[in-house]
Amino acid sequence: MNALRHLRATAVVSVLILAGCSTPHGQPRPDSEALAPNEVLDFTGLYAANCAGCHGPEGRGGAAIALANPVYLAIADDAVIRERIANGVKGTAMPAFARAAGGLLTDKQIEVISSTMRSRWSGSSAVERFDPPSYTATSSGDADRGGVAYRTYCESCHGQEGRGGSHGSAITNDSFLALVSDQGLRSIIIGGRPELDAPDWRSNVPGRPMSEQEVSDVVAWLASHRVRTPGQPYSASTDLQR
After folding, report:
1. pTM confidence score
2. Domain check: are 116 and 43 in the same one?
3. What's the structural domain count of the chain?
4. pLDDT > 70 fraction of the chain, expressed in percent and rounded
5. Is residue 4 part of a domain?
């Protein structure tokens, strides 16, 4: 019996040795070669390296909005998402990733990110029975009307004049407004921020979704609170030597 076990063990070792000899010494196995950065087409790696730092692991949100938000993906079409990834958003913290715009990603890599986001995170029932406001404004907003709409839909969470409340952050803060575009504000109002329990355009007042115009008006009202020198107690033109 012991002799039989010894023969079996010897056979196994021989097979392993022969398998190891299939690759010449000093040469890497074909599957061990690392891809060049511009050849990586794996969504998980691309997202982790380029998007997760702001938009959070698995698109769940962080410093920037959650991308795994079916409502956002319902209003932002493929062309919009590709364009934002490729060219960034001027004046905000969203950089350009396309090589043509100074980034590091190829067009094919951008396509992998945008298409996989939609296939993994969108949902056909996200806006079921509702007609959401359009991604981009169809008319100019009015700040005065926006103030009224803000008090109706937003003040209960974000406080008077947007200075913050028990359920929401300050959204007229000059530093915050300096980091988000009008389109970014619009996207948040429509899509909400589910990772922060912030409702979308349907849920601020039960049974009373915000209209297309009301969304535009609230964006105009928020934008009216921007200042030229955010985060500074003095004007940039002030002579500090006096």
Report:
1. 0.80
2. yes
3. 2
4. 82
5. no
